[in-house]
Amino acid sequence: MEASSSSSLWGGLNSGIVLSLLAVAWTMLWQALQGLQLHHFFDRHSRRLSRRLAAILDPDLTVTIAEYNGGRMRRSDAYKEAKAYLERATREARGGGAGGGVRHLRAEPDKDPDRVLLSMDDDEEITDEFRGAVVTWRACTAPQREDTGPAYFWRGGAGQRAERRSYKLLFSERHRDLVLGEYLTHVRREGRAVMVKNRQRKLFTNISGDGSWDSDGVWSHVVFEHPKTFATLAMDPAKKKEVMDDLDAFRNGKDYYARVGKAWKRGYLLYGPPGTGKSTMIAAMANHLDYDVYDIELTSVRTNTDLRKLFIETTSKSIIVIEDIDCSLDLTGKRKRKKKKKEEEEEEGKKDGDKEKEDDSNKAGSSKVTLSGVLNFIDGLWSACGGERIIVFTTNHVEKLDPALIRRGRMDKHIEMSYCCVESFKFLAKVYLDVDDHPRFDAVAALLREVDMTPADVAENMTPKAPGENADSCLAALVEALEKAKVDAALAKKKKAKGNKEDAGAADDEDEEEEEEEEE
Ligand SMILES: Nc1ncnc2c1ncn2[C@@H]1O[C@H](COP(=O)(O)OP(=O)(O)OP(=O)(O)O)[C@@H](O)[C@H]1O
Ligand SMILES: [Mg+2]
């Protein structure tokens, strides 16, 4: 028993020593291998082996092209190009007729008004072939997290989930180099060509779609089809030429802007009474330059950040418009008001009720876009993104705007749209009635020198409204309208003078009362 127990003790000690020796030997060997960089060899081979195993189990590789990448706010160009490429592939796919066997298609308006542009709907697949390699494209959607994503606010806001779209390209391991090296380049290049070919000018709005608009990221759009051109816009000819030259210089000024280190953008301020052609001028500008139009409804933009997102999502070769900037938001004269606020309250002795009303109206607007937000949008660091953009503000009351908003550099060119002059009338008579001269021209010209009438009103009077109407009857109607406007203007002047007189009388009485009080 003893002998056996001592031998087992001895055996246990021996095996412990052997194990320790083995461990030491292994550590030394491993260190030696590391010294020889042999672990790289093992690493490489084990990785290759696992890749081969994976290729046997799952032979397809995938490339995902997402609509929005990571923290980027802009829609990815690669996604747009792949979309255009796949639209063409869907249209041209052989074997399955139109749509190439894709069962669920998405339709969008085509350049040709009689046709629609077909692309595959979510979860559909289409195959493509490139130099013997067959690849599959799959359209995928995943719900977006509720609090992120640029499309979030514009697709219904809180509580609604925007969708995250992507295309998945599936291909065999065998074609890895061909697909990653050449096919993807081919897709992007072809997609860009399709986009140029299909380009339709668009009118975008930031008001979320109600079904009649096609949503494209944060913007909804329709095809821009306004017929107005400079050829039919009534305006002082010299002024018109100046504007057209300015636009041409801008369009061709890429090198100039780069040389002087300015962002390739230009601001236009169009101001004048209602009906003098400000909106019409924007349409003429867009048609002249062949640009898209982004019409921002500022009251629908909730914060300065959202305004920035909107700007980033605009493309180059576009006109960004904010109409009636003075009415959109309380952007005007805020700084002036702050300074004067105390004075005004003291001088005017505002009633409490009035103050409450004003506060309520300020609270009512959910928009928190501020003057500084708009200033940044036009002229800040972000304004240089993309280039080749024209920003247009229109207003009926230029005097109400904060000087910072319309200083040169922000609004580079100020264009006054004024009442109809004799030249503009003759121009409109040619456009609307196709007459160069008429016995009533003198009467109209004499009246236009005395009374203000907008080109909109002149044009309306010269529009034949019944089958029998001609130039003669239309011009007679115009003379009548001008005479009526003259009488109305005289009456209004008289009334105003009377009002002023009464005000002056009341002021005198107040002064007298004050003096009496002071004397007392
Ligand atoms: N200078 C002009 N030349 C030709 N047509 C004009 C001109 N001005 C106005 N019109 C016609 O009058 C209509 C109204 O013009 P428009 O909407 O451009 O006015 P506006 O200055 O934008 O007015 P508002 O300040 O109310 O927005 C248009 O349909 C247009 O055809
Ligand atoms: Mg307008």
- Average pLDDT reading: 79
Fourth-level CATH superfamily of the largest domain: P-loop containing nucleotide triphosphate hydrolases
Number of domains: 3
The oligomerization state is single chain
Query: Helical proportion?
Result: 40-55%
Number of strands: 14
User: Under the CATH scheme, which architecture of the largest domain would be assigned?
Assistant: 3-Layer(aba) Sandwich
Radius of gyration: 36 Å
CATH class of the largest domain: Alpha Beta
Determine the number of helices (DSSP H or I, runs of at least 4 residues): 17
Give the CATH topology of the largest domain: Rossmann fold
The unreliable regions are: 1-7, 94-99, 147-161, 332-364
> How far do the termini sit from each other?
135 Å
Largest sheet: number of strands, sense, barrel closure: 8 strands, mixed
